[in-house]
Amino acid sequence: MVSMTEQPTATVDPGNTRVVLPVEGMTCAACATRIGKVLGRLDGIETAQVNFATHRAMVTYDPATVDVEQMRTRVEKLGYAIPEVVDDEAEDARRARRLTINLLVGLVLTVPMLAFSMVPGWMFDGWQWVAWALSTPVVFYAGREFHRNAFTNLRHGSVTMDTLVSLGSLVAYGWSVVALLWLGAADHASAMRLNVTGLPDVYFETAGAIITFIMLGRWFEHRAKSSSSQAIRRLLELGAKTATLEDGSEVAVEDLRVGDRFVVRPGERIATDGVIVSGASAIDTSMLTGEPLPVTVDVGDEVIGATVNTNGRLVVEATRIGEETALAQIVDLVALAQGGKAPVQGLVDRVSSVFVPVVLAIAAVTFVGWMVAGVGASVAITRAVAVLVIACPCALGLATPTAIMVGTGRGAALGVLINGAEVLEAARGIDTIVLDKTGTVTQGRMTVASVAAADDRDPSELLRLVGAAESASEHPIAQAIAAHAGAAGGLPPVDAFTNSPGLGVTATVDGHEVRVGREGLAAPGGLPDDLAAFAREARARGETTVVAAVDGDPSLVVTVADALKETSREAIAALHALGLRTLMLTGDNEVTARAVATSVDIDEVIAEVLPADKADVVNRLQAEGRVVAMVGDGINDAPALVESDLGMAIGTGTDVAIEASDVTLVTGDLRAAADAVALSRRTLRTIATNLLWAFGYNVLAIPVAAAGLLNPMIAATAMGFSSVFVVTNSLRLRDFRGLRAARRTPVQTAERWFVRAVTVALIALVVWAGVQFQRSLLPGRAVELEADQGAARAVLVGPGEKLTFAVTNDTASDITIAIGTRAELDAVHGAGHDLA
Fold this sequence. Notes:
By secondary structure, the protein is of the alpha/beta class. The longest helix is centred in the C-terminal third of the chain and has 36 residues, at 671-706. The two termini are 64 Å apart.
């Protein structure tokens, strides 16, 4: 859970503000739906989305019309609360402690009560009174939250999951008290219990088991939900707590100011976002970007707070602090995404709003129907109670938000920030992905690709002179050549320098005249044949050629290109594996664009597109029926990102592009785009599985309970663990690894499959035991007896057969019944006696 002192807010439209508020007291999806509807009716509130899994309300509102205090007042009138100060860790601990105490009380008292109430051989005289004493604290202490919440909701004219649990346990308990005190249930022979129809009976163990088993399910659910919400907690824990200033003093991170310089030693976390002013090192950014390898940094490079300095000593000047840092913005994005609702949740909300009233109606019909069928009040009540407790709107309410919580949290760990739950739905239908070239497929900076010198000249000496001449120019191509030449050793000084715009430069270096640039400047008479052939081949590959002449002799050709990112080919292959058609959209010339596309196997190329026209291309693709995702990193990509069905911004790009996107890829690795699509699809599959279980569970289980084939205790256990199933299934998303994570070793894979096998075996064992227990509680072959005073009957029974006696008599009678095989009965009563 998040531990914060204030809620994240963001302006989403002019005049509107978005706020995420914690809501305490929700127990099922119906609670969340009701709060959302009531908040939505307030003047000035545009949208109100209440998430049951996160216990958060995300509200978009006009602060000139309504404020948070009015929202708090309205929510409190419903019986819930919005705390003044958010402390999720403390609230999480309090709830865990409360659930544990209630569960222990229930288990300690319910287990022995079940033993002597269900096993005839363990029944003793007066066991019904002991069961009453043991069940009372379970129902009214361990289950007090169910009753309190049910009463609060009823007072406000609503019914929820707590209503079903409270009503089911109280009906079983109340009927048992009436049967014990006034209907003679304490007078039954213990061995006849559950085997004689028409007699009043007590169900104290059922009332206690309903509370205990549902509490057990909630305890497991709480633990699972705590695991599913670890993403934000882990992000917050990444940040450094203190920083060491240049003078050696240590200050708290929150006391840093923009412009302060602090020291980062090897192994320490960088205190806040900044720029390196001294030192060089490699930075481990894996916790924020998902990149497995450290990134080399030097003076002038930007660094992100919370990343780890692996070796060299750095001095960093703070450029962003507090809520402006990358970590803080990531936390807010994840919190907002986890607090939102996917469109599919609308169906769940509509079902949840009518679910509990429908279940109450079915339970009432079940009771009346079985009473009309003449089974007696005990049986009719038992079957109605089973209907009440088997229904589980909790599983419905948790199906979508828990998957979103885990999916978006896992995305954050991989450097994939999903900016809203609705983005997951958008990713499902994507069939075309449009890629910007510069900075997305390529590195976005020019580098020297190849060098060719005239046959009679030393290429290293020529490159040293040319590099020196280019070092005086600010042009990106010139700087790339200068950097390449300087890497082999120091460059000589430049004595004279002239820049000819659009053509190149002329300089005097070591007494030599050096001309570098277009062929018209350096070789007006043309290049030698070998260099001319080399230049033609380079241009065909999409590379830029730079010609150099020393002392008037054209003797060197340098080719420069925007180098591909090392992982681009793998990323494109992954996008193809996802069934996506790839298209590169760029303002570069056709030859260069096609050369880049061919090298990484991109399907389509649209080149020489002006920045203002990129959005038009996206619109044209959509008009053709395509569902388009756009990946870009520059200001000129922002309109296309907005127009696309799913916009993904490279996090190393501009703030404008990031703000315009649906998904932010914190890393510059294009493989993260494939990870984003794959994770979104897997999250949606998980949601579909959860909903299939939640809907299917209720559709099948309620009729079974109404038919009298489900004991209330089994129903309570199944209902509690249906929610555990949904949350556990969602937690499987934490195993999503993506393309950039290290592959599992054979040992890790074997361990993983072993744990899966053991888990499946345990689940199968529990289900088998539950089925056997349920079968033991079902009535056996009916044997109808009309007994007279002192009557004796003999009953023929097969091996393992179960009997239920239906006795009809107007007066109290002592009945003797002999049960056995034919041989056994013949030995006692003689051949030819009457058999029932």
